[in-house]
Amino acid sequence: MNKQWQIELEKIIKDKKRLLSNPADLLSYGFDGSFGQYQPERVVQPINREEVADIMKLANTFGVPVYPRGQATCLSGGPLPVRGGIVLDTCKMKDKLTIDSENLTATVSPGVITSKIKEAAEKEGFFYPPDPSSAHVSTIGGNVAENSGGPRGLKYGVTGNYVLGLEVVTPQGEIIRTGGQTIKNVTGYNLTQLLVGSEGTLGVITEVTLRLIPKPKSRVSLLVVFDDLVASGKAISGILSSGIMPSAMEIIDQHCINAVERHKPAGYPVDAAAILLIELDGHPKAIEEEMVEADRICREIGAREVQTASDEEDQKKLWEARKLVSPAIAKIKPTKISEDATVPRSKIPEMFERLSEIREKYNVELVVFGHAGDGNLHPNILTDKRDQEEMKRVEMAVSEIFESAIEVGGTLSGEHGIGTMKAPFMEKELGKIGLEMMRRVKEAWDPNDVMNPGKIFPQDGQTKLVLTE
Ligand SMILES: Cc1cc2nc3c(=O)[nH]c(=O)nc-3n(C[C@H](O)[C@H](O)[C@H](O)COP(=O)(O)OP(=O)(O)OC[C@H]3O[C@@H](n4cnc5c(N)ncnc54)[C@H](O)[C@@H]3O)c2cc1C
Asked: Is residue 14 predicted with pLDDT exceeding 90?
């Protein structure tokens, strides 16, 4: 028999195609790009802010958990319905994508796919720099909620650096606007940036206003080949301390290179210990000089080879192969655990050494790639969740990755968020009071704990990652 809130929900979403309750649908909304699987009681697909507001009023009255969801590419468990309730799928809210050429802004519905914003901006001669490798499949709502980064974070920053304003439905179902079209805004607390990266725990984003910038005049890419992983880490610091600011500087280790070459050959050197992919953008004369200088620095530090690509097509090929790393390594074993421990840039070589030790110590399939230019590494462990003995070793390896990142002065997450996967380690990084202050913010916004409950904050006494059953 239907519960009272389920009967009330049918009065809000009258279109039966947008209110899902059959087991197959519920199952397919129970996972994301991370690890766990949970079952919601209902899935709703609202098409406007008013429906979202009515759903939140109902959820708040009946104490039903609501889990906002974009395309569920999250790698930390953000949209997982860990306490059942309602999954609120925002993908049908995608009607608005307006470029304002006079103000250099874009106003966008939350379900719009990120790469569409970039395309629309470029048509008008502008640039929307945040470029998560999932940009062709993830939504702007998800990107804002996770404060997603990507290769270009090094020079241009992350999603949050481009969010000027938001329209948000609060956990109580009120519709509010924060920020706006202005580049500067210091009126009171910066609620826009509090909501950015809040992982759907403070409200549902129903519209985003983004800052655009002029499109850089030209671009070149370098592929630098190393026989030693630690040397590649030193080259990253070498280039940055020389005064060059690449728009992207990515590292791919040997395991990932081989996985890409097996998946869809891109011509990456399979015998290299690591490669760096570097992109320089700006005025053609300036990048010409920087290209020569970056080549010299890399060779001095021990690069075996430096290839350059100035042609648009050649560059596209190099970077498309980079985007294939994640799907390619997913083929190594059935379960992929993707981390984004981020360290100060000077600590990249040390972190590489620690990761090699962890790989040996726990005998796990640990591979590394990532946005090395900003210290944001992606150690990934490929495993099989049905093998409980191996999963125990994986649990310990993942915990040690987090601990190592914190010990060298880094952070649990540079861009994937905390979700369920990193919650047990929050106190380690923030301290007791730091974490408590965050809890107080959550309680003030959402006293009935209906907005994405079970995320970010560890459960009482939870200090360990548990991946086994
Ligand atoms: C192959 C691959 C590559 C990736 N590369 C990158 C990368 O380079 N950089 C990076 O940062 N991440 C990357 N990710 C992670 C992921 O794509 C991002 O976190 C992305 O922003 C999630 O968007 P989504 O639409 O899938 O959101 P979801 O996964 O559905 O949700 C993510 C979080 O946002 C919340 N949320 C979603 N929509 C809303 C809304 N409208 N209002 C409030 N809360 C909302 C959810 O509750 C959840 O907590 C990658 C993932 C994959 C699978």
From this structure: yes
